[in-house]
Amino acid sequence: MKNNKYIKHIIILVVLSYFCFMFGNGLLSLTIPDEVFYAQTAKEMARQHSWMTPYLFAQPQFEKPVFLYWLLRLGFIIFGINSFAARFFPALFGMIGVIAIYLFGRIGFKDPKKAFISAIVLMTGGLYIGLARTVFTDLIFSVFILLSLLSFYWGYAFKNKKGPGILLFFVFAALATLTKGPLGLLIPFLSVILFLFIKKDLKFLLNQYLFWGLLLFGLISLPWYILMFKLYGNTFVNEFFYNDHLRRIIEAEHPGNDTWYFYPLSMAGCIFPWSIFLVFSLFSLPQYLKQRDNQFLVFLVCWIVSVFVIFQSAHSKLASYIFPLFAALALFMGNFIVDLITQDKKRLIYFILSLNLLTVFLIPASLIIISIWFKHYLSLHLLAQPVVNFIIFIFLAFGLGLSFLIARKKILKSVYCLALFVPIMVYLIPFVRHNIEPYLSPKESCQYLLKNYQVDNVILSSKFFARGVKYYADKEVAVIDIPGTPFFSQHLIPFLNSKEKVLNFLRKQKVTYCVLKNSSVRDIGRIVSGEFKYTVLKVIGNEYILKIETL
User: Fold this and answer.
1) Is the dihedral angle over the CA atoms 222, 226, 229, 232 positive or is it negative?
2) Which of 27, 168, 377, 454 has the greatest CB tally within 10 Å of its CB?
3) Contact between 66 and 110 (Cβ < 8 Å)
């Protein structure tokens, strides 16, 4: 009977995660600036016949290790070069992560319901769905961290699995290191050492399996790093280790995020719609840790603390950086939710669900206010108002359904209903795709240029659009950004951040086609007066397509 329930849960999670992550993820074109960055790198690697050196703008680039590019190339080989192929493996790893968290919960809690709810929470959290449906390293990296820690805890909880658990711990840490860098080993190793230190059991690792595990780690992860150093020497070291790792610790790439509260707020906001459950579960943590059978919760705390401390100390901060701890948060909440349901704490869960219901109703309420205030603007876009009305209807219906379940005291069904919130939002995208895609991708602008004009020279692009223009137009690109700073990671393309540089660039081409944002258009109008003339050919979303000619 237990095995049947186990298999049933696995099948349900596989099916649900397929629809959450994989189904329909090719409808939206690859977005700027990051999805096209990874996809273009994989395309250029294929063009250069290279499986080892990543390329961008026809030059080696070392912003990330090679594993994601391998997956992208395989996706392109299997499905062709398209957005579904690029997003296939992130979605697949999203599904793997859901099953891994279920297995983790079964081992740690010894409770299939807690494991199942934990998997549902992870699967339907906003950031998890977002990363599983887009091309980034963060989800794949985090799933390898999850599998590494799962392997260790499996070996720790079952003494007869100690050897395979430690070896798999290092194997998955090595794959994480090939995905995003040395943090692939640092995060799981620090989590484990902190846990064993608290348990006064450091001797658990002092055995032959540690030696063989480190050997496996080296054999899997180090050859690519050694090869890149051998081929590119200090260029690789400076770009990969200094610019993309050490520099992010000492310098903020996104200065507005460099605050002490950025990551706490990110944890709560990015796990929406479970944010309120997270707050309450963390407040209840001291009570849980006082219990005798708290070994698994201690392990989760060590995991969260390790990730948080590592990234909190760095000045460059993004919500996706702390994504490796979201699996541990999901396990916390799964434990908390099931305890509320099964114990005599019904009032508290009703209160939490009611707070969540308010947040659900905030979306249609906000849209109603926006549609009134910006009625004239919406009237200029014939599809906008019907789309807004449709979204309002969907969320009002969802909110009323959740209200009904809460009123009928169907607690578990209310939790499952809440889990539908973010997937519903995702499946509204096809209805608004034509409205939002021009603001997320320069694909349509590039298609317009290539279809209507003979583009045989360098395209001038705003900084934010540059990677996308390169991906979709497959032409050489120069960047105008006045006054601007170069890309955080080095791109060996013309970067025009002064009037003189722009004029010198334009003088080399009789005709220059551009894909620019509005502020860059104003800069062009100010700079070219008297020597060149420019024509706005078309405006698509926030992209202005220009033609600049010598007078």
Assistant:
1) negative
2) 168
3) no
